Amino acid sequence: MEYKFSVIVPCYNCEKTLPETIDCLLGQSLHSEIQIILVNDGSSDGTGEIIGKYEKDYGNILSVSKENGGVSSARNAGIALAEGKYTLFLDADDLLSSGSLEAIYKKMESSGADMGVFRLMRFGFGGKEYNPVVDFLAKEDEISCYDRRLMWTFSPGNKCYKTSVLKDSGVLYPPTRFREDGAFMLSFIFTVFPGITGIYDAVNLYRQADPRTGRSVTQNVKKIHCDDFFTSTGIITEKIQKSFSDSRCTCDNKEEYLQEFYLKTCHALINHFFRKLWRIDETALTDLTEHYKWYYGMLSPDNLLRLRQTDGDICDVDFSVKKLKSSPLLSVKVKNPSPDFLFSCYEQTMPLFELVTENSGDCKNMPNINSGKPKSGFVLKFRGQKAIDPRIFRAVILLKKHGKLSKLPGFMLKHGAFAYLKIKDMKNR
Asked: Per CATH, which fold does 5-217 belong to?
């Protein structure tokens, strides 16, 4: 049978979410014309049994089992088996909106493109939100290989590739477990120089895992992940610089393109690592800080301003745990914090806080606990019985940095931040 799509799904210990992902694909209007490739990457839970059942019930589902080697090796194994005209990658806890594959197929066929970019919406832990940069890209009929907005959508789940072009390129995912998606996408682009189109009527629903049920790779902060990040970044740097001397290069301002890459790397270091400050060991933090300072120092004044507009709560901080413990930006005061409240504190996207509590019984293994007088001049009080939104500390700090609101008392800023996040979530429904 000639398939319109091959959808490659790497599967590792995903028994809780995999059925929903497969059912999402089987519920697409083109379900009978989809080759679903499930790559069992050495799972030790019930993932294998789920895959076996679906493969038995549906003739268009193909499975392959391999020793655990990470998501890159799993996706590469799927590429080798892809028979559809177009290839997509979907994680085993992610979804596609209804009708996405039909919309992708129509646009890819009408445009003759080699690669498609469609919308991306994050959901799950931390709320629901569309990626605004990707939304603009998805409206474009033709996207330049050097469109700087592509830097802001490395995620593999909202891309479609013409299978024959992908296979002929020889491009595969690198053997890293962090930023491998960006290394793959830009390696493909600067090897093939493909025709790229946007697809607005398709949406990749990217699930943000709840860390209480187990952290995903991007929620963990280990030395190996830091090393992998910079290995992938090195691949991207090499591909960009090599492309500049290619006869197919259409970049009209190479320095501005490199500046976008420096900016994106600073942003990624902040949001993938520094916002998880209390889960980084000191050795990894030192290495990360050195790299960050280099990229930060390469930024032009305009891009430094852009970084401060997006990450102004944290981008100019000296990431020394010792210094931050002595001078936090925020003191969170609570008498008897519950385990849920404590957990939500250390999942905050603004980690430059101290926890001030008289009862440190449940907090003894938590970092940056203060049982005395608050060290910062800005104190927020909480009852501490329920988990709080993981974005709330950052929202409060950003409101406090706003000129007209900076003098408001903490309790007013706290309530204002909760209201702001509630309105933001309602807009993204």
From this structure: Spore Coat Polysaccharide Biosynthesis Protein SpsA; Chain A (3.90.550)
